[in-house]
Specification:
38% helix, alpha+beta, 152 residues, globular, 6-stranded antiparallel β-sheet, single chain
Length: 152
């Protein structure tokens, strides 16, 4: 079951990052953990807000777009609206920024320090409709756990 899968991953996140304060190290290992355990994904990582734009942070995958304006593309929309974007077919998303032409679906979750959006977690897949509601809930839980470790 997906819920058990995400509960197990969440225990790993809490154990791995308890007491960790270095954001870059934590985001790098968080990306690696997801890359290792999530099936059928081709990119996972962070974009961080800097001067009204998203700037590439720690990730696993192919070379990526370095800067994304807030409000543009799936990542910029998630950051600007502070709402998870779960996109079944990125080619149907108006303003989609194609960093990797092999990506067909995407989930982007706001990364927060308290109530302030400081970036996003972006996960891409070559599979259409790869991410469902259970994935969204599970991934939001994992990211919330990481946030609680880093920004407690």
């Amino acid at each position: 079951m997906k819920s058990e899968f995400y509960d197990t991953l969440n225990r790993q996140v809490l154990a791995l990052f308890e007491g960790e304060t270095n954001q870059v190290a934590a985001m790098a290992n968080f990306s690696a953990l997801l890359n290792e355990h999530l099936e059928t994904i081709n990119w996972v990582g962070f974009y961080l807000i800097e001067n009204e734009q998203l700037v590439l942070g720690p990730f696993q995958g192919k070379v990526a777009c370095v800067r994304i304006p807030l409000g543009r593309g799936v990542c910029g929309t998630a950051a600007a609206e502070n709402v998870t974007q779960r996109i079944a077919d990125v080619h149907q998303f108006e303003g989609h920024i194609a960093c990797d032409s092999a990506s067909n679906s995407e989930i982007v979750i706001p990364f927060r320090n308290g109530n302030e959006v400081v970036g996003v977690l972006d996960i891409d897949s070559p599979i259409f409709s790869r991410f469902d509601e259970e994935d969204q809930k599970g991934l939001e839980l994992l990211l919330k756990s990481l946030e609680s470790c880093l920004f407690a």
